[in-house]
Amino acid sequence: MSAEQYGTRLLEEVHEESLEELLSEVRLILEPRPRGVLGIPELDRLLETVRYPLQQSPARQPWTSSIIGSPIEGLVDDGAVLDASYHRHRHNPTFSTIDINDKPATIELSSQQAASGKTQLLYFLASLVILPESFHGRESAVVWFDNDGRFSAARLAQILCRHLERTYPNLAESEVRSISQQALSHIHVFRPQSSAQLLSTLSDLASYLLDRTKHASIHRPLGMIVLDPATAFYWQDRFEADMAQLEASTSFQTGGLPLPKQPSKTANVITQLKALQARFGCTVMYTTMMMHNTSSTTASKNSAAPPLSPWNTLAALTLQLRRVPVPQFAPQMSLEQCLHDADRRLEVVRRSRFSVSVAQHTVQSIRTGGDRHREGNIAGGGDGGNLPGFVMRISKDGVFVEE
Predict the structure, then answer these.
(1) CA–CA separation, 119 vs 151, rounded Å?
(2) Which segments carry the region annotation Disordered (predicted)?
(3) What separation in angstroms does the CA of 293 have from each of 197, 198, 296, 301?
(4) How far is residue 165 from each of residues 119, 197, 280, 351, measured CA to CA in Å?
(5) pLDDT per residue over 163-215, tens digit each?
(6) Residue 374: which of 316, 301, 308 has the closest Cα?
(7) pLDDT-based confidence at residue 139 (cuts at 50, 70, 90)
(8) In degrees rounded to 5, what are phi and psi of residue 186?
(9) Is the pLDDT of residue 273 over 70?
(10) Which residues contact 359 (CB under 8 A, 6 or more apart)?
């Protein structure tokens, strides 16, 4: 082997990464990302199942290098200890208490019908993100993309205040109002009217967040990015894509060159979200509506299963929300019996209970080691397999998660 070939081989073994990636990995070694990232224990347990599968080592291993406690302790600087610890955890698979390449949470909230509690749950989660740490919040900022123009600051403030009053009953009304107003100033709402505007805002978001002259959240980390809903511009984008395809076909028939195929706007949005998540280490949450299959049973059996949506494959955890149904009156009940049970039935309706379960394709991904592609149509959802969900109540007094 010549010297040139040997040098080329050595260069191929060199691992290259940016300074930002290196500092991010060092930060995860010194300050591991907490597992309870959302503030709702029931939801954090579901997320932990996805992000932290069964680990190899049953006991927690010490973070420090074996240098500490040895006869040569004190003869090396802290940089050498950190470097030894870094390489030990990076290359030893038995150290499974932390994955330095672990990604922040990406969660999809989906439902088959509107008014299923997706936005209300996002309001509650956003409240937990912006609250100070002294009130068991994450003391972070939230970026909210209101893609359908239905964001309600009044409802968000109501949920936040009710949470404070319920959790801290000794707080005075003026204190609750002051805490909520200060916390709400760290929610940044954008209202794009198209996918093009959404892409433009996402591309400029980092510059906006790092500009101390534009907002008061400069000293807070970015805790969560919300897209509600992520599929708001689906039909608009589909129309534009069909028109572009028609124009390209007409141009080709008249002798013009065929236009190169461009990536979809959804793919570009997802790329921007991944870049922001990698840079700021924030949670990404978005809402979608499950598409109904209107074809007949025979046609469904003979046709190939539709591919997974890009939004399905982006999320590490997909949660399906639906209103808990209230049983109807039995056909054999008399009018007097129905009137007698009317008040109790109305009380059950007023409780507004919603179930939150894990989508079947998320369960399949866990069982297959991350491979989400499987046979069958996942649009119908599932009961979450063996992963238990939870139930929440939504009322004018706020959002409550049942234990």
Answers:
(1) 8
(2) 365-384
(3) 31, 29, 8, 12
(4) 21, 38, 32, 19
(5) 999 999 999 999 999 999 999 999 999 999 999 999 999 999 999 999 999 99
(6) 308
(7) very high
(8) -105, 15
(9) yes
(10) 108, 110, 318, 319, 320, 378, 381, 382, 384
Structural tokens at position 365 = 């991904």
Pair of tokens at residue 239: 């129309």
CA 80 – CA 367 distance, rounded (Å): 40
User: Which pLDDT band holds residue 264 (cuts at 50, 70, 90)?
Assistant: confident
φ/ψ of 157, rounded to 5, equals -65, -40
DSSP 140: -
Put residue 219 in one of left, alpha, beta given phi > 0 → left and psi -120 to 50 → alpha: alpha
pLDDT digits (tens, 9 = 90+) for 320-356: 999 887 777 778 888 887 787 777 777 767 778 898 9
Residue 124: DSSP 8-state: H
**Alpha helix positions (H), 31-77:** 41-51
259 has a pLDDT exceeding 60? no
**On the CB side of 315, how many CA atoms lie within 13 Å of its CA?**
26
- Return the structure tokens found at 256: 């013009």
Residue 268 CB-half CA count within 13 A:
14
Backbone angles phi, psi at 187, to 5 degrees: -105, 120
Name the amino acid, one letter, at 199.
Answer: L
Task: Say which DSSP state 402 is in.
Answer: -
Distance CA 108, CA 288 (A): 7
Alpha-carbon distance 187 to 223, whole Å? 10
- Per the prediction, the chain carries an average pLDDT of 76
Strand locations in 117-177 (E): 141-146
Q: Which CATH architecture has domain 106-322?
A: 3-Layer(aba) Sandwich (3.40)
Residue pLDDT, tens place only, 44-102 = 888 877 766 554 444 444 444 444 444 434 444 444 433 444 444 444 443 344 444 46
- Please report, for the chain, the start and end positions of each structural domain, with discontinuous segments joined by +: 20-52+77-102, 106-322
Q: How many CB atoms lie within 10 A of CB 292?
A: 10
